[in-house]
Amino acid sequence: MASEGILLGMGNPLLDISAVVDEDFLKKYDIKLNNAILAEDKHLPMYEEMANKSNVEYIAGGATQNSIKVAQWMLQTPGATSYMGCIGKDKFGDEMKKNSKLAGVNVHYYEDETTPTGTCAVCVVGGERSLVANLSAANCYKSEHLKRPENWALVEKAKYFYIAGFFLTVSPESVQLVAEHAAAKNKVFTMNLSAPFICEFFKDVQEKALPYTDYVFGNETEARTFSKVHGWKTDNVEEIALKISQWPKASGTHKRITVITQGADPVVIAEDGKVKLFPVILLPKEKLVDTNGAGDAFVGGFLSQLVQEKHIEECVRAGCYASNVIIQRSGCTYPEKPNFS
């Protein structure tokens, strides 16, 4: 059994506005499938356009929050997970609070009085997704909130931490505070590369956090972008995973393990100078609903076993199970109980 508050996540809580669109819509707003970007002015009208579609769905999301909710679902121990991020004092924010409490996650949101809750347009074409995030309130998280005694208590209580790379664009100082705490107390600190733009445009803050990471998650596109940005001159995902695992560490307590997913191709695990490949559960195309949240769900499943000190094989198996469930549903949602044994 996982103890209460064993896993803490911090990130950008966003309400997903998910709709099936067409290629013309992607062209109109200049967006690519299987990518994640921050909204620019040219993207702002798309939220309204999507909200008016008959097939639109609103789902509480945000990468880290998705992973934490999936870990919570897999663990089935109320309050095993906690989460912090910033929302607005509005209808969407209330929706988010209700949704997270129902999921069993102990949320300590920072509520911004003046900025609306962040949203993420999830554009689905043929089951593949493109994400355009309008951070709004999520961008207003302050480390002062983290330092409040009732919130820092969650940090003290947790033994495992997960923060998606997206949070580096918002509060790198919060990431650093938690990372340094984890290193000082021999706890496990995990992060995600999250998106090519993080590796490209937030390279400095990413590099500052990297030495503290005990597990680095990512997908093949992010790994290749990371390699390119660091001048490694290789596109080979296995080589890149190894190089990331060998990046210098701030604390010698835990070795670093790199975990790279590749869609339907095997998961790459790099540790101790070796690479292992784990096949995923293949899904017939007709069963695929959308890939939104697939990577987040993989991390959530993985962490649900990691916090129970299971072997890496079990962590990967749980990650593959969770992502397989999520891609057969709209957004990062799941049935009432997992049937993972």
UniProtKB/TrEMBL annotation:
<comment type="function">
    <text>ATP dependent phosphorylation of adenosine and other related nucleoside analogs to monophosphate derivatives. Essential to sustain methyl recycling.</text>
</comment>
<dbReference type="GO" id="GO:0006144">
    <property type="term" value="P:purine nucleobase metabolic process"/>
</dbReference>
<dbReference type="GO" id="GO:0005524">
    <property type="term" value="F:ATP binding"/>
</dbReference>
<keyword id="KW-0547">Nucleotide-binding</keyword>
<keyword id="KW-0067">ATP-binding</keyword>
<keyword id="KW-0460">Magnesium</keyword>
<dbReference type="InterPro" id="IPR029056">
    <property type="entry name" value="Ribokinase-like"/>
</dbReference>
<dbReference type="InterPro" id="IPR001805">
    <property type="entry name" value="Adenokinase"/>
</dbReference>
<dbReference type="GO" id="GO:0044209">
    <property type="term" value="P:AMP salvage"/>
</dbReference>
<dbReference type="GO" id="GO:0005634">
    <property type="term" value="C:nucleus"/>
</dbReference>
<dbReference type="Pfam" id="PF00294">
    <property type="entry name" value="PfkB"/>
</dbReference>
<keyword id="KW-0808">Transferase</keyword>
<dbReference type="GO" id="GO:0004001">
    <property type="term" value="F:adenosine kinase activity"/>
</dbReference>
<dbReference type="InterPro" id="IPR011611">
    <property type="entry name" value="PfkB_dom"/>
</dbReference>
<feature type="domain" description="Carbohydrate kinase PfkB">
    <location>
        <begin position="28"/>
        <end position="335"/>
    </location>
</feature>
<dbReference type="GO" id="GO:0006169">
    <property type="term" value="P:adenosine salvage"/>
</dbReference>
<comment type="pathway">
    <text>Purine metabolism; AMP biosynthesis via salvage pathway; AMP from adenosine: step 1/1.</text>
</comment>
<dbReference type="GO" id="GO:0005829">
    <property type="term" value="C:cytosol"/>
</dbReference>
<keyword id="KW-0945">Host-virus interaction</keyword>
<keyword id="KW-0660">Purine salvage</keyword>
<feature type="active site" description="Proton acceptor">
    <location>
        <position position="296"/>
    </location>
</feature>
<comment type="similarity">
    <text>Belongs to the carbohydrate kinase PfkB family.</text>
</comment>
<protein>
    <recommendedName>
        <fullName>Adenosine kinase</fullName>
        <ecNumber>2.7.1.20</ecNumber>
    </recommendedName>
</protein>
<keyword id="KW-0418">Kinase</keyword>
<dbReference type="InterPro" id="IPR002173">
    <property type="entry name" value="Carboh/pur_kinase_PfkB_CS"/>
</dbReference>
